[in-house]
Amino acid sequence: RSSDAEHGDWRDFFWNPRTHELMGRTATSWGLILLFYLVFYLFLAGMFALTMYVMLLTLDDYNPTWQDRLTTPGMMIRPKGDQLEITFSVSDTESWDGFVQNLNNFLSPYNDSYQVQTNDDCPPDQYFIQEDSGTVRNIPKRSCQFNRTVLQECSGISDPSYGYSSGQPCILIKLNRVIGMLPGKDGQSPYVTCGAKKEDSAKMGPVKYFPPNGTFNLMYYPYYGKKAQVNYTQPLVAVKFMNASLNSDISVECNINSNTLAEGSERDKFAGRVSFKLRINDK
C-alpha cells in the first residue's frame, strides 16, 4: 500500500487533476516563468550583440587597433625539421630529399620572373614608407622585390640540392612579420649572425651568408599587413655551413642584430633568435 501511495504521490506531483498543476505549477505560473526566462535571455543576447557591435566599430580591416606583441619578433628556419632539428646523411639521398622539396616549395614565390611582375625594384637601405593621405587609403600598398637569385649558392638554382648533397647545407632564416615594425635606423639594416654553443664552436666551421652580411634590408619595412600589402614578400637570409664536422650534433643559434630592436630575454627563447640542431652524417 505504501508503494501505491508513493506512486500516487509521484503521479500527483507530475499532474494533479484536482488543482490542474503540472509538476507543482499551474499553467499561468509556467507561462509567467517561461516569459521571464525568454525576456531574460533575449536581454542577455541583446547585450552581447551590442557589445560585439561596439567592439567591431573600433576595428580596422587594415590596421590592428591593439597590438600585444614582443618588442623583438621571433625567428624561424626553413627547411622545417622535427623539433628544429636538421639531420641527414650526405650519401643517402632520401634523408635530405624532403628538405630540398620543402625549400623548393617555400622559395617558389621568390622566383625572379614572378617578383618582377608583382613587386617594385626599390632603392635599398631605406624604408619603403607608404602612408595614407588623411582619410584616403593608400591601398593596395606596393612591395619590394626579393629575388631568389639574391640567395646565390642557396637559391636552389645553381645547386638544386641546396648543398645537402655535398655536406654543405643551406638553412633559410626569416623574421616574423610585425605590422609597422622599423628594425633599424640611420640606414643600417638588421643582420643575422649564427654561432655554435661553446662546446660545439669548433665543430661548426665557417659559414657564408646570403645576401652578403646576412641583412634583412630596410626596404622591406615597414610591413603593412596581409590585407593592405597583398604581394608582400618576406625577406630571407640564407646560412650555408661550409665545413661542419660530420657525425656529430652541433647546437647552432642564430640572432638578429639591430640598432633599434632589443635583445631577446632569457624568458623568451624565440625573441630575436632561433636555435636548432644540425647533424651531418657521412653514411
TrEMBL record:
Domain of life of the organism encoding this protein: Eukaryota
GO BP annotation list: intracellular potassium ion homeostasis; intracellular sodium ion homeostasis; potassium ion import across plasma membrane; sodium ion export across plasma membrane
Transmembrane segments: 32-59
Entry keywords, A to Z: Cell membrane, Disulfide bond, Glycoprotein, Ion transport, Membrane, Potassium, Potassium transport, Signal-anchor, Sodium, Sodium transport, Sodium/potassium transport, Transmembrane, Transmembrane helix, Transport
GO function terms (MF aspect): ATPase activator activity
Gene3D superfamilies recorded: 1.20.5.170, Na, k-atpase alpha subunit
GO cellular component annotations of the record: sodium:potassium-exchanging ATPase complex
Subcellular location: Cell membrane; Membrane
Topological relation to the membrane, as annotated: Single-pass type II membrane protein
Entry annotated with the keyword Transport: yes
Principal subcellular localisation of the protein: membrane
Reported function: This is the non-catalytic component of the active enzyme, which catalyzes the hydrolysis of ATP coupled with the exchange of Na(+) and K(+) ions across the plasma membrane.
Family: Belongs to the X(+)/potassium ATPases subunit beta family.
Protein name: Sodium/potassium-transporting ATPase subunit beta
Organism: Takifugu rubripes
